[in-house]
Amino acid sequence: VLVESLLVFAVVLSVHAVVWDRFSWCTVALAVQAFYVQFKWDRLLQLGGAVFQFRGAANSGLLPASMVIPLLGVVMKERCRAAGIVYFERFGIVVASTGMLLALFLSILAVGITKPVPTNTCILTGIAGSVIIYTMKHSLTVSEVIEVLEVLLIFVYLSMILLYLLPRCFTPGEALLVLGGVSFVLNQLIKRSLNVIEGRGDPIDFFLLVAVVGVVLLGLFFTVLFIFMDSGTWISSMFFHMMTAVLGLGVIMPWLYRLIQRNPLFWLLQFLFQTQTRLCLLVYWTFLAASACGVVLYQNAKRSSESKKHQASTITRKYFHFIVVAAYVPGLIYDRQLLYVAAVLCLAVFIFLEYVRYFRIKPFGQTLRHLLSLFLDERDSGPLILSHIYLLLGMSLPVWLFPRPCAPKGTLPGAGALVPYSGVLAVGVGDTIASLFGSTMGEIKWPGTKKTFEGTMTAIFAQIIAVALILIFDSSVNLNSSYAWILASVSLVSLLEAYTTQIDNLLLPLYLHIMLMA
What we know:
Distance between the termini: 25 Å
């Protein structure tokens, strides 16, 4: 935990050194108080004193998770300020302020339920909170303050509902990241729906907002519904499919129509088949999806043919990482907008299939339970299987979060040109190579972990080679001699992979994204 915290502090101080304004000072204050509060959360988890049931075999992860959203906002603000885009500079300030307030709320919650009350930690949290609120008071307009408080309110209610319904699925840090992100997306969708201006906003951004909120609302609706009826019967399954169609066609489609001012289905079909390149990419991705399904079916056939219990090895699970890298790299090089939309569709399909598996919806629910149980690991300890969804999110978030309006030529200068590749580098290449080499050839273990020195070093080396290949094949990337920063960023994130107990598929790409954006 100490080494993980040290690495997070290194990232925070690196961003602070580049930005050096009052918001970067606030992130330093937030990091210091989160470091102390993290130990209170860890103690609560060990003693079983936390309000909800969190994922076991991991620390609280409060410090690394608390810094992600504020740092994303700070680096976005700085990039958009340099590009002269005032609207998105203000948006970055709102993102940073929201992240700080959510992290403070989680810290105050831990301090409040710790007995006896930790006086020193309370004082530190009070000082950090005062600095952050004073900065927000002198930086945000009234409408922006209301927006930040709205996100906090949504987060509180969403946390109470989902953490109760889904025990052992998240650590406190993962809950902060996932539920904080969903809360922000929901607030943005409500805000934009109430202030629709024809022709303003990119349809693909609205598509992401509506898809995320739609699948979350769908899950909440069926979770409440199936409290009162058995979800495994044919009647319940027919009702599930019928209500999904009703909610999709009767709520989500009209909502999207209001935002983009055109028929969503016609827009989507026109968008997907607009050029020959897009058609080729879609055919290629269909082949990769079929290959992934083939791996699942083959491994399950192998399990059924063996008398002893068969569980997929680490190397087998990394096949999917290779498939995802093979899917994302051509999309990043040839058509990032298509990749953006395809990733949103994939996320919606993954979450829908998880609902089918979780609720045992006929005819595929039980089959999915059997097929996916082979690939479970210690991080899937709750009722949901989230590893594949986290992998998709880790690869997609750098594409979705890339500030396109602040990059007029479609790319950022220097190391920022690699920002959309953060998921490919951190998870697709770094995490995969570290796992493969560490499990097969690693001998020297990092102190206090199961990860090996050889795995981390080969991960760094592999990411450097991947950057060189990106420079060769993607002509839009121009690093402008920022190689030392890229090496430092890759090294810090690879070391964080060795020491963190959080979901690395989600955390590592976001930290690499922050470092490259800075």
